[in-house]
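In this section we walk through a basic example: taking a raw amino acid sequence and producing a predicted 3D structure, encoded as discrete structure tokens. The instruction is simple. Fold the sequence below.
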Amino acid sequence: MNVTRVSNIIWILISNLILLLANFGVSILLANYLGVNDFGIFMLAYTVFNYLIVFNNFGLKKYVVAKLSSNQLNINEIYSSSIIIRVCLSFVAGIILLIILDLFNVDTEKKISIMIFFIAAFFIVFDLQAFYDSYEKSKNDSMFLIIRNVLYFTSTLALVYIDKASVIKVSVAFLISTFLYIFMQYFHSKKVLPRLKFVFNINQLKVIFLGAFPLFWSELMINIYDKADIIMLSILKGDQEVGIYSVAARLVAAIILLVGAAYRIILPTLSKEVNLTQRNEYIENAVKYLGVITIPLTVGGIVTADQIITIFFSDDYHNSILPFQLLILNVLIVGIGSVFGTLLLAIGEIKYYTLAITFGAIINTVGNLFLIPKYSYIGASISTIIAQLVVSGVGFWVYKRICNPKFKLKLGKVVFISMLMGGVAFCTSLIANLLVVVLVSMIFYLLFLQIFKVINLKEQIIKVFISLR
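The resulting token sequence is shown next.
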């Protein structure tokens, strides 16, 4: 693999690790300080923010990466058109949001927090991450993300330490860190990107709008099948149920985010690769290495769920254990399944990608409607897993049909070693704390990977050191 790409992957991985730790830290601080009900309010506002991001972005981030990775001549027209589309959609989103908040007679604190996140979503309209990725400068953008997430976490920590934390104040801290992130992107872009100029081209605007729409639809469907549970829990049950469920969902989402570091590299790489054999070989390696990471994470999470929730959260969140054990299955499902969805985007088969996501959104919405009233956050967890399985399954089926790959998944050894590791983790957890369990399990797993010759650790470590030079 190209040394620059390996370096980018490492920096994105570090950035996602920091984001994981920041989200994990903020979740712990707020869940324990604010209590179940107020934490549920904060998570509802944050979920609305994620929907705003999807609406404002309109699928343009992935569209820009796919287009500029193969042709960088029209960068200014693409940049200008994407900004115009995003700004217009942001104003539309603001009007719709105000109408919804008024119709549902949302209380003042919740309404203010949601509007603060709306402003943060507006700043993201000017995000340059897609351009950094397209020019293989992900390393630089990852550094800015690290600064943003460290600032957000330390601000939240300071508010809790001085006993001044509230839903609104933490929302403001998130807003400030988001603004600084965008500012750093533009300040540094002059050094690593071509000079960005505003060039209005109505024809290019139409092309980009229509070209990005399928991606927008798929991202909207992703958020429906991935985050609709928070909204529906809030409506059908209440803020307390949202708080309990969010602890589990936030932890799992943080882990998936860490694993997702690879996809910012996989998409531009596959977009450039036209040889079918080499493309299939790339996919085979991606599935193998992601399986090596996600399978033990899933098994270990299930085994140690009780310790994880208990050590970090108060007794009020004991009911989060079972949702966490269920939702962590998505680390494996999404970790491997997203490879095939990413490929469909790279080779231009957006309609199949969109179809898979739409199926998942419909299944999750219907599942939540039936399961949440009776089973609350457990029902929401089950519905989410089923939806993820459908999306990943459809993506894999389409990939097999279009690309006719000759490889097999070859993850049997990894599953076997992970199950053994799970047994070791369970036995160790009976006599030791979580840190010891993790260290013992990790050493056992890496040792057996070498014994069964699944990967060559020495070779991978050498590649890492070369890329960091």
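Looking at the output, two observations stand out. The mean pLDDT is 81. The longest helix spans residues 3-57. In the next section we compare this with other chains.
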